[in-house]
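Quarterly update, task 2.4: flavin-adenine dinucleotide-bound model.
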Amino acid sequence: MGSAFPRLLSPLRVGSVTLRNRLVMGSMHTGLEDRDWHIDRLAAFFAERARGGVGLIVTGGYSPNREGWLSPFACAMITEADARRHRTITDAVHEAGAKIALQILHAGRDSEVPISVSPSAVPSPFSPFVPRELTEEGIQNTIADHARCAELAKLAGYDGIEVMGGEGFLINQFLAPRTNTRTDQWGGSTANRQRFAIEIVRQIRAAVGDNFLIMFRMSVAEFVEEGQTFDEIITLAKELQSAGVDVINTDIGWHESRVPTIATSVPRAAFVGYTARLKEHVTIPVCAANRINMPEVAEEILERGDADLIALARPLLADPEWVNKAAESRVDEINTCIACNQACLDHTFTGQTVSCLVNPRACHETLLQLLPTRSAKRVAVVGAGPAGLAAATGLAERGHHVELFEAEDRIGGQFDLARRIPGKEEFDESIRYFRSKLEITGVTVHLNTRVTAEQLAAGDWDEIVLATGVRPRTLDIPGIDHPMVLSYPQAVRKERPVGKRVAVIGAGGIGFDISELLTVEASPALNLEEWQAEWGVTDDDHALGQLTTRKPTPAVREVTLLQRKTGPFGTTLGKSTGWIHRAALNAKGVTQIGGVNYERIDDRGLHISFGENREGRRVIEVDNVIICAGQESVRDLEDQLETLGGRVHLIGGADEAKELDAKRAIDQGTRLAATL
Ligand code: FAD
Ligand code: NAP
Ligand code: SF4
């Protein structure tokens, strides 16, 4: 039987290298690159993806010199000793049948070191240091360092290199008027600004010869003011091709862009249009990237001829076997990246090793393993939310006999609510994945079954896992029983109609989600044109940075979001996504009121006051009040099962409701499964 994804799985010759398929693992900085003693972990991480079938892997970005470090003592490829160490990686990947390229990344002004450099002394929002303007000699040396770095990569056994020319790093800083104010041969005209990138490629090609792959990661949409125009981007692509580039890998936006580029609310394959337009102007292969997370999306891109290759980065954190599963028509088994950024990008921004919310083994392959058990046990798992699902499937995968009890008529727990939030449609994929994994691993699932302590105690279980999760906190406000009051599950499930004027109590992640849900008719993530208008994105070839005026669809309700604390809203949201939620609510005109006391609820609406003296009393006249005031653990069963002692395990929200999220729930479930 033929494959469902013939184009995706067809080989391609790129430069001197033949790739076994069209899937490229895009560069991700995992944090493991920065310390030599993690090289074995890094090799295991790449090898697992190579065994999973990907054609070409691109490493995280290695600096060609110390000035280009992303952070102090970050990874670099500068000496022959560096190159020799990398043999562990290249050998492991080659043994598994894939190719691997080293990414060369000079951070320029984004470097967090005091010796940072840039074409001009324009400060970066990400570094406390103002970069030094490169001299003519400095520029020549930096170009030579790139060429030397590529030579060392060849010595290390890599099949090629990728030059990072996007995301606002050094090369991009030369390309854009925003960061290049020079008046010599390296600044001013388009040709002068492009000289640095082209010269780097020329010298790399001269240093490595013909039999070595050169990829160039270039910005095809800048999404910053005073970025390059699309006309300039096309000119650059043609020049790079002439200078010796074998593949153009596309890149979207700068780190400081105020257009979301990889969040879950970005429509799938949202930026492929830019890639397709660029491809019309070059003859070398072009690779599409960003928000491509399922094989059918990737296959469609190739079928339309919009690109020759598909870069998957986070989807391969989520599922190292993605390619093999696609090849074997096991798409239902793919653990899909939900683009939450919670364990990948947010970890990078907070100095933690990258992992994945839906796959806590990512970057921990040698540390967290679900090995076959030698003594199969009978295990009851109570609760089919993310924690219980991870535990049940992990335990069954190891060979235990697992029965899963869920009170509701479906699996998912609170995730079944999350998936109904506009822009969080991807969360549905996680539930689909777990459903398929329960079946494959042979877990016996009892839906509509609220188990009691007596049933569990009588069940003769070797182990009992309580993953009973959380329930919404009930508030003690006069009038809380008024018919206008809804809990957040009631609002999400649309159990009762919600009027045109709404107050939302509590501005945590769920308060923000509910406010977004109430202001839109349909999810902008499912409508590319609406999403582009919402964020002011244009495909006008002459627009600087591909930006235009934002035209958000008007809100369908008047929403007031409230919190008791003073200070800014949304401080507990994800590091890399919080600004998106804040911008989305601002665009919808959601009123935000902090420092409030909730006095009472009556037919007029929600009565509030301010400060310890309860001053400034007023009524917010609304049709409904939605309570999003956090949650409490559901652990009634634990007390009653005390006599069973060490056989009872608490995970997820049942263990601790404070600062609970699905990342912790899945991580705890998986870790417990690995140890029982
Ligand atoms: P739960 O999801 O609460 O699951 C517990 C399960 O146990 C439930 O299905 C319940 O019915 C069952 N149960 C309870 N008692 C019994 C019993 N006696 N017998 C049988 N079954 C029982 N998290 C993120 O990380 N990122 C997000 O973007 C995000 N967005 C969210 C958006 C919304 C609108 C909501 C509501 C939540 C969101 N979350 C998000 C939070 C995330 O869903 C929770 O942290 C996670 O679901 C907690 O998992 P859990 O398994 O511990 O508990
Ligand atoms: P939360 O983030 O803890 O927020 C609860 C909100 O309710 C706070 O704003 C709090 O602010 C308010 N509150 C707490 N106790 C209250 C009380 N007694 N009376 C009135 N208000 C009270 O919880 P959540 O929004 O329910 O989210 C639950 C978890 O899901 C979070 O930990 C989060 O990580 C996860 N989640 C994540 C995302 C995401 O995008 N990553 C999205 C949704 C949910 P004040 O005390 O100032 O009023
Ligand atoms: Fe994807 Fe979220 Fe995993 Fe990152 S943490 S790889 S965004 S699922």
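Highlight for this quarter: The pocket of iron/sulfur cluster (ligand 3) is lined by residues 314, 317-318, 337-344, 356-358 (CB under 6 Å).
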